[in-house]
Amino acid sequence: MIVCRNKKCKKIELFLEFFSKLIEYDTKECYNSMYHTIDEVKNMKSVSYKPLFKLLLDREITKAQLREMCGFSTAVATKLNKNEPVSLTILLTVCEKLDCDLNEIIETVTE
């Protein structure tokens, strides 16, 4: 390794060090701010809000009406549509407004 006292060289060394760490994570994916191997991610359970959407259909409530009833943002609504994790507080608010239990609006699925 060449040692250089020039500031440009030091920046290049830091960049190369950073880049080498990125290469280590090449075969890993980020899931909830933690790195896992691709096989670990494939075997993880994820959430599905299909039961929530079925409940909304049964009660003839639109997603927009649910959003207004619960007071959450469009970003949260998008997360629900994409089956992405949302906070427990939001899920409990939905349960309160729809007068139901958590198991009636969410399920876990293996990807």
Distinctive features:
434 Repressor (Amino-terminal Domain); alpha+beta; two-stranded antiparallel sheet; 6 helices; 111 residues; two-stranded antiparallel ribbon
Topology readout:
Layout: H1 7-24, E1 28-31, E2 34-37, H2 38-43, E3 45-48, H3 50-58, H4 63-70, H5 74-81, H6 88-98, E4 107-110
Write up what this structure looks like.
The protein is of the alpha+beta class. The chain has two domains: 7-43, no CATH class; 45-110, 434 Repressor (Amino-terminal Domain) (Orthogonal Bundle), CATH 1.10.260. Helix content is 54%, strand content 14%. It has six helices and four strands; from the N terminus they run αββαβααααβ. The chain has helices spanning 7-24, 38-43, 50-58, 63-70, 74-81, 88-98; strands at residues 28-31, 34-37, 45-48, 107-110. The protein has a two-stranded antiparallel ribbon. It has a two-stranded antiparallel ribbon with strand order 3-4. A hairpin with a 2-residue loop joins strand 1 and strand 2. The longest helix has 18 residues, at 7-24. The chain is elongated. The mean pLDDT is 78.
Summarize the structure.
By secondary structure, this protein is α+β, with helices and mostly antiparallel strands.
What's the tally of helices? Answer: 6
Largest sheet: 2 strands, antiparallel
Strand content: 5-15%
Helicity level, as a percent range? 40-55%
Estimate the global geometry from the Cα principal axes. elongated
Number of domains: 2
For the record, the CATH class of the largest domain is Mainly Alpha
Mean pLDDT: 78
Secondary-structure element pattern, one letter each: HEEHEHHHHE
CATH superfamily of the largest domain: lambda repressor-like DNA-binding domains
Task: Please report the distance between the alpha carbons of the first and last residues.
Answer: 45 Å
**Derived structural class:** alpha+beta
Q: Rg, please?
A: 22 Å
